[in-house]
Records
---
Amino acid sequence: MNPSALTLKDFCDAYRLCREKAYQEIRAGRLRAVKVGRKTLILHADAEVWAAALPELRTVGREQASA
């Protein structure tokens, strides 16, 4: 069964983030979180939206960097 929400720990494990970085993303408004009692949850749909909005890594080749 695939749960529709991740605990903060499960989210951090899945996306290889530390807990502080996840909370920074939540505070900045880039990642939506919900509360159930004291537990913080990230809905799968919100995690996917967050991941899709991450900036693409663009690297410059060595030939172009020295030009």
---
Amino acid sequence: METISHRTGVSRQTLYRRWPHKWALILDAFAEHADKLPALPDTGHLRGDLTELLEYTITTLNGICGATNRVLVTEGLQDDTVMAELREGHFARRRAQIESLVARAQERGETVSLELDVFIGLLLGPLWHRLIFGHAPLTRSLAPGFVRSVSTFLHQERSREQS
């Protein structure tokens, strides 16, 4: 906070009045940057929309945004307040994007029958696993396979339920 105060000319007291701790300030700045994402893709079908969204997300996570996410998640695992702010102020927006794409697909008449919460977890989980643990590269070329795998899995589950 001292560095920010010095660089901006804003007193630390003023900063702390607005942000109770440095992580609140960082999350706020991060959320502001995240709000500048481009419009949601509209390819005419859900698979295409999700693939483009994941490709963009992967590209973003391979930059400073991914490094910042790792730091914020690390801090959030040690501080419930930071995690709650991260979840409610950032992750909720990403989930809402996918919910919007699914709703739009349903409005177009695509048959989309799924447990949305599970679907979003299955779709985003592999990205976060690679980002956080770094066990394998996170590349744009993975997006179509992630979407195809999740779609196939959900289709197989529906088929089993109907049998």
